[in-house]
Amino acid sequence: MTFNGTWKVDRSENYEKFMEQMGVNMVKRKLAAHDNLKITIEQTGENFHVKESSNFRSIEINFTLGVTFEYSLADGTELSGAWNMEGDTLKGVFTRKDNGKQLTTVRIIQGDELVQVRDLNSVAMQV
């Protein structure tokens, strides 16, 4: 399965609690809740180019499955980890550099939607 496509985030479940657990302050959480996030994924074999863009931010990430890399989230949180395929699921396991906590992101395509679940300390957010 390839993940090529562009998806607009139209809903987020448990967003506020997850962002609070991430350490994002209330002002940034309120702004980010209305940022019209769009995710574009280009996959060529095991290589990926991901662009996340919104009203307030834009980041681009290149990675190869199974290869550890470092990057920063839009709020400046620095992470190190890798993405892997588990069947039709794209799973990323990352460690925060500032506090050593593990952030897991799972992406799967269901029909014509990209479903993404992020988990930090058993607090999950689904978009």
From TrEMBL:
What Gene3D superfamilies does the annotation carry? 2.40.128.20
Q: Does the record bear Transport in its keywords?
A: yes
GO MF terms on file? lipid binding
**What is the organism field in this record?**
Cyprinodon variegatus
Q: Which UniProt keywords apply?
A: Transport
According to the entry, every stretch annotated as the Cytosolic fatty-acid binding proteins domain falls at 5-22
Family note: Belongs to the calycin superfamily. Fatty-acid binding protein (FABP) family.
Please list which residues make up the signal peptide: none
Protein name (record): Fatty acid binding protein 2, intestinal
